[in-house]
Write a structure and sequence with these properties.
With about 270 residues, the chain is an all-alpha fold. The protein is built from eleven helices and no strands.
Length: about 270
């Protein structure tokens, strides 16, 4: 597909103008009432819907959902523009500068060149070399090296995603195993401790209906046993995420597929 850059520019500016009008005094009451904080959930939901469309390999749906993501991005950026914090053009320039800076094997002079010229100048020949170069630029050129290797993994990530990102960071620094068999053994051990902790909870219950963390049906011993079980389940989940990493599987995507399969089969 050959795309005219002028057509892309026109379409992008049209969407920007629509956002501007929606936020104006003559615009939509709902859109005018939104804030960046209020838009967080919508942005997350649209991203997940786009991922779902990609996973389903439905290009028509992907086209629609990516449009929704872009709309949410532009809406939020325009809100900050209205507040005078930064402009959309500044955000676009910043990401463009970052991409050029982090791809010196493509843009050695810090400027955009033709694909043929870029290919002739490429020095990072493998994905591994590119990733190592990317991390080096972040730490040494941009000064993003934190006190911990995990500082760049947001605390607000969903737990499953955060576990995967933490383990990937740790793997780059040699802090976790690269051996599948060792990881699988760790997972087996973790599952065994879950079984043991579950037995401990069952043995601690005064009656079959006892519930931990409640006022009437619990005890300090039961609460302690349940917290230990919770910790062991967490360890097992973390071990499974690590094993998935070594198998080359994104556990977030895998669980999303399992969720959709479960719903389909349960409703069939």
């Amino acid at each position: 597909m050959v795309v005219d850059p002028a057509e892309v520019e026109s379409a992008f500016f049209r969407l920007y103008e629509i956002v501007r009008i929606l936020r104006s005094e003559q615009g939509c009451p709902w859109d005018k009432n939104q804030t960046p904080l209020a838009m967080r959930r919508s942005l997350i939901e649209e991203c997940f819907e786009a991922v779902d469309a990609i996973t389903s390999d439905d290009s028509t749906h992907v086209c629609e959902e990516l449009g929704d993501v872009l709309f949410n991005v532009l809406m939020i950026a325009y809100m900050y523009e209205e507040a005078g914090d930064f402009s959309l053009s500044q955000s676009l320039q910043d990401i463009s500068d970052k991409l050029v800076r982090r791809h010196p094997h493509v843009f050695p002079q810090g400027e955009v060149t033709s694909d043929s010229e870029a290919a002739a100048r490429t020095k990072a020949h493998t994905t591994e070399q590119v990733i190592a170069q990317w991390d080096s630029i972040k730490e040494n050129v941009e000064g993003r090296k934190g006190a911990s290797v995990f500082d760049s993994v947001p605390q607000g990530f969903p737990p499953l995603l955060r576990a995967y990102k933490l383990l990937k960071k740790a793997a780059k620094k040699g802090l976790v195993t690269h051996d599948r068999n060792a990881s699988r053994a760790t997972l087996s051990d973790a599952l065994k401790t879950v079984d043991d902790a579950a037995l401990s909870v069952a043995a601690t219950k005064s009656t079959s209906s006892s519930e931990p963390f409640t006022v009437r049906d619990s005890s300090s011993a039961l609460d302690k046993a349940q917290l230990d079980l919770e910790e062991k389940v967490g360890d097992a989940l973390f071990a499974l995420v690590d094993y998935a990493r070594l198998l080359g599987v994104d556990p977030v995507v895998a669980l999303d597929r399992a969720n959709r399969t479960f719903c389909y089969r349960a409703c069939s």
